[in-house]
């Protein structure tokens, strides 16, 4: 009744008023510039309340449609992965609970799961924005829903492009790939701890190779340890039997060298992984940028790319030498067969 005179001027809950100064107190006890400004606020509040009610009424049928569709599509739930469901083109028209026509039941469920996945992505994006605005959660919290799919630290993911920033600040292709990296690092750490505890147990019960072979390490020359054939059997900390202590230490030193070489190769591969896809026949084309870097071999190179180019070249040469040896071996076998 207070604002009846302004009702015919309202459009979408908005009432435009002049700045006339004629203060008036509203029903809420607040003072407004004039009667029109008071009514403008009342109409906006009424409009937003009506809109919220209308949205709730719209959501109720949507929830019913969703429940009915879930019941119809229960047999396809196990086959749907990340909103993707593969269907045949069988022509068996069906009307969905939402009133739309679909080619067959599977294609209807495909559309439903796709919409569900998109809604999930939007919810994740909203949650991510909310998290970024507040306290950043840990990897364990973000990746809790993916843990059930992990096997031996591996998590199968799609290549969907939905960039996400992890708690450590790094950007990943999508949430799944971010969690995959987290679970791999977690598995690696777990194995490391298991190895450390195993080594600790072995150390407590038996002397280590280091202790047994400390006196022989000084006798090595150019990575080799010369031993006699003296027969004095001994069991190493690894449980294997050796002819004598010297031969046992020789085997240990060789294994140690192989381990170091392997670690060095892995470090080199990881170091140059960014250039791997640019290599053609062992050749890597680099700029002449001056940014000196020391390689795993101890040599200085003009820049990282130049260092990787020399490593890739060595790899290619080793590969070619191996092929030549195989050819020579096969040729020798053929000659012997002919003779």
From TrEMBL:
<dbReference type="Pfam" id="PF00050">
    <property type="entry name" value="Kazal_1"/>
</dbReference>
<protein>
    <submittedName>
        <fullName>SPINK5</fullName>
    </submittedName>
</protein>
<dbReference type="GO" id="GO:0005576">
    <property type="term" value="C:extracellular region"/>
</dbReference>
<keyword id="KW-1015">Disulfide bond</keyword>
<dbReference type="InterPro" id="IPR050159">
    <property type="entry name" value="Kazal-type_SerProtInhib"/>
</dbReference>
<feature type="domain" description="Kazal-like">
    <location>
        <begin position="137"/>
        <end position="199"/>
    </location>
</feature>
<feature type="region of interest" description="Disordered">
    <location>
        <begin position="319"/>
        <end position="339"/>
    </location>
</feature>
<dbReference type="InterPro" id="IPR002350">
    <property type="entry name" value="Kazal_dom"/>
</dbReference>
<feature type="domain" description="Kazal-like">
    <location>
        <begin position="266"/>
        <end position="326"/>
    </location>
</feature>
<keyword id="KW-0964">Secreted</keyword>
<dbReference type="InterPro" id="IPR036058">
    <property type="entry name" value="Kazal_dom_sf"/>
</dbReference>
């Amino acid at each position: 009744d207070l604002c009846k005179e302004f009702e015919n001027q309202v459009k979408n809950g908005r009432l435009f008023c002049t700045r006339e100064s004629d203060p008036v107190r509203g029903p809420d006890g607040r003072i407004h510039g004039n009667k029109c400004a008071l009514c403008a606020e009342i109409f906006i509040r009424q409009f937003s309340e009506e809109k919220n009610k209308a949205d709730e009424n719209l959501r109720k049928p949507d929830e019913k449609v969703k429940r009915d569709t879930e019941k119809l599509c229960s047999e396809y739930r196990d086959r749907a992965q990340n909103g993707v469901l593969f269907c045949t083109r069988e022509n068996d028209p069906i009307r969905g609970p939402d009133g739309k026509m679909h080619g067959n039941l599977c294609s209807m469920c495909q559309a439903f799961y796709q919409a569900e996945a998109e809604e999930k992505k939007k919810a994740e994006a909203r949650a991510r924005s909310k998290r970024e605005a507040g306290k950043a959660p840990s990897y364990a919290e973000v990746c809790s829903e993916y843990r059930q799919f992990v096997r031996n630290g591996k998590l199968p993911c799609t290549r969907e492009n939905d960039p996400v920033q992890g708690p450590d600040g790094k950007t990943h292709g999508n949430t799944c790939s971010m969690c995959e990296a987290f679970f791999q690092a977690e598995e690696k750490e777990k194995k490391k701890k298991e190895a450390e505890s195993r080594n600790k147990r072995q150390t407590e019960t038996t002397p280590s190779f280091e202790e047994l072979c400390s006196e022989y390490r000084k006798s090595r020359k150019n990575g080799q340890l010369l031993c006699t054939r003296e027969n004095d059997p001994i069991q190493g900390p690894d449980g294997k039997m050796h002819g004598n202590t010297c031969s046992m230490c020789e085997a240990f030193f060789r294994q140690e060298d192989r381990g170091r070489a392997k670690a060095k190769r892995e470090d080199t591969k990881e170091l140059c992984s960014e250039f791997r896809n640019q290599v053609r026949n062992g050749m890597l084309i680099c700029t002449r940028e001056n940014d000196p870097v020391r390689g795993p071999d101890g040599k200085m190179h003009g820049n990282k790319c130049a260092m990787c180019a020399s490593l890739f070249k060595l790899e290619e040469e080793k590969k070619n030498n191996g092929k030549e040896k195989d050819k020579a071996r096969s040729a020798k076998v053929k000659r012997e067969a002919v003779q």
